[in-house]
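Customer escalation, tier 2.

The customer says the design service returned an amino acid string that "doesn't look like it belongs to this structure." They asked us to rerun it and document both sides in this ticket. The original structure tokens are below, unchanged.
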């Protein structure tokens, strides 16, 4: 959409994309009345589910807390974009040659980082359980 500004030739550029869809532009080409508000409501519902999970889970490891905070901050950022503009502003474009990853923003990166941390912590928990050791939590 915008004129790209090359930052690292052949790999990374800044661009401007008005993402009316979901993550990675899914449903971006589909138009229907109230789409922005529906996607905002779905995002808010997921945000509430994450908070509920954290509230109900009891003591959490530091990695889990950081992952949840990263996901929440990213979700809030994207929700604000959608409420203010009716779309999410994406501007980071990674590519090799003519193959481009879908444009994304810092909020998307935070959500993906948070999910990655939760997956990593789950793998660590499984390894601890198989080794018979406990989990360190924030209270100790």
């Amino acid at each position: 959409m915008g004129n790209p500004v090359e930052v690292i030739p052949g790999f990374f550029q800044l661009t401007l994309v008005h993402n009316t869809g979901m993550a990675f532009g899914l449903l971006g080409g589909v138009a229907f009345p109230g789409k922005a508000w529906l996607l905002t409501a779905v995002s808010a519902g997921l945000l509430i589910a994450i908070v509920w999970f954290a509230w109900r889970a009891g003591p959490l490891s530091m990695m889990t807390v950081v992952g949840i905070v990263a996901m929440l901050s990213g979700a809030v950022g994207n929700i604000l974009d959608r409420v203010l503009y009716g779309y999410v502003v994406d501007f980071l474009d990674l590519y090799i040659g003519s193959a481009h990853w879908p444009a994304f923003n810092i909020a998307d990166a935070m959500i993906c980082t948070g999910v990655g941390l939760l997956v990593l912590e789950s793998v660590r928990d499984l390894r601890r359980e198989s080794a018979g050791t406990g989990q360190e939590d924030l209270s100790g």
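Tier 2 assessment: The sequence is consistent with the input. Strands lie at 5-8, 12-19, 88-96, 99-100. The longest strand covers residues 88-96. Sent an explanation to the customer and offered a walkthrough call.
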